[in-house]
Write a structure and sequence with these properties.
Elements lengths: L1 H18 L11 E3 L5 E2 L9 E6 L5 H12 L7 E7 L3 H11 L9 E5 L5 H5 L6 E6 L5 E6 L13
Parallel strand pairs: 3-4, 4-5
Antiparallel strand pairs: 1-2, 1-5, 3-6, 6-7
Length: 160
């Protein structure tokens, strides 16, 4: 009976997640800078260009490939601010940066944020890693959401 109850709960959670969609506007959040642990919220977001949230796991192969693709095509992101967001602690994120995207480490429009309170999932409703969200910085409206995509070429058309 205990297993039946657990299975039913798991099934309800999965079905609920399937009905969830990416937020059409940027929700309230607080993440923390990986560099200095300072809080980061929507008030600090830019008001021009595009805002890209990349929710990733440092050990995820799709995430590594997408991040490398962003780095290789960095010039195409000149009108964007990119936020790499992870629930992983600083050493894992720094290892990811050094191994896959060292060229992005010093870019002013690239930020690495720690979701230490694990609030990204209930606020943005990702279903797979990486989960990318492209928002218009002025209107804060969602332009495109990609889940589980590793090919940066599928992201680039939304950055006019």
């Amino acid at each position: 009976m205990k297993y039946l109850y657990t299975t039913c709960i798991a099934l309800m959670v999965m079905l609920n997640a399937l009905g969830q969609q990416a937020p059409v506007t940027i929700p309230a959040f607080t993440f923390y800078s990986v560099q200095d642990a300072q809080p980061y919220n929507p008030d600090k977001l830019p008001t021009t260009g595009y805002i890209i949230f990349n929710y990733y796991d440092p050990g995820c192969g799709h995430c590594q490939k997408m991040a490398s693709g962003i780095a290789k095509n960095y010039s195409r992101f000149s009108n964007s601010t990119i936020y790499f967001i992870s629930i992983n602690d600083k050493p894992y994120v720094e290892g990811f940066i050094e191994m896959y995207i060292p060229s992005l480490k010093s870019k002013k429009n690239v930020h690495f944020l720690h979701d230490k309170d694990i609030t990204f999932i209930p606020k943005f409703n990702p279903t797979q890693y990486p989960s990318l969200y492209v928002y218009d910085a002025k209107t804060r409206k969602l332009i495109k959401h990609l889940d589980g995509e590793e090919n940066v070429q599928k992201l680039l058309p939304y950055l006019k």
